[in-house]
Design brief:
Layout lengths: L2 H11 L3 H10 L6 H6 L3 H10 L9 H9 L3 H7 L2 H24 L4 H7 L4 H10 L4 H16 L5 H6 L1
InterPro entries: DEATH-like_dom_sf (IPR011029), Death_dom (IPR000488), DED_dom (IPR001875), FADD (IPR016729)
Protein name: FADD
Length: 162
């Protein structure tokens, strides 16, 4: 199946009538009035933009600018997920896997590990209070709190250093 057309179909299904009208308005210098009147759906608009070579599989810049203009940043992310998104997803998967390994292999001395990661005693006690009688969940919640605290610097390599 053609990924480009699948993407256009997916985007078209998420646009409402008002957003379509806004996009058409933004295209009024590119599409002649007679053809503009024939556009009744986002797919019609995308077909017309393809004919005019405003959008193509190799160049989605104009589509991205339209989606940004109508404030559909969620759809912009579908069009241009970018390498950073892929890296973040891969790193998040790796750290989740590391958390599971730690939870499976660290026993009663898990608090020492969490302290070396920099979580406060108050945070540790709060996690224990919220998860009584479940040591694995206490450890997992502490690791999740560490990830929230470290934000972008919470990586497997930074976890390994501790």
């Amino acid at each position: 199946m053609d990924n480009f057309h699948t993407l256009l179909l997916e985007i078209s299904q998420k646009l409402d009538e008002r957003e379509l009208e806004s996009m058409k308005f933004l295209c009024n210098k590119k599409i002649v009035k007679k053809k503009m009147e024939m556009i009744k759906s986002p797919l019609d608009l995308f077909r017309q933009l393809q004919e005019l070579t405003e959008i193509s599989e190799d160049d989605l810049t104009f589509l991205i600018s339209l989606l940004k203009a109508i404030n559909r940043l969620d759809l912009v992310q579908k069009v241009e997920p970018g390498p950073r998104c892929e890296v973040e997803t891969k790193e998040r998967d790796q750290i989740d896997e590391a958390f599971d390994i730690i939870c499976d292999n660290v026993a009663k001395d898990w608090r020492r590990l969490i302290r070396t990661l920099g979580l406060s005693e108050a945070m540790i006690e709060q996690v224990i209070y919220n998860n009584p009688c479940n040591m694995r969940e206490q450890l997992m919640q502490c690791l999740i709190e560490w990830r929230k605290m470290k934000k972008d610097s919470a990586t497997v390599s930074s976890l390994y250093k501790h």
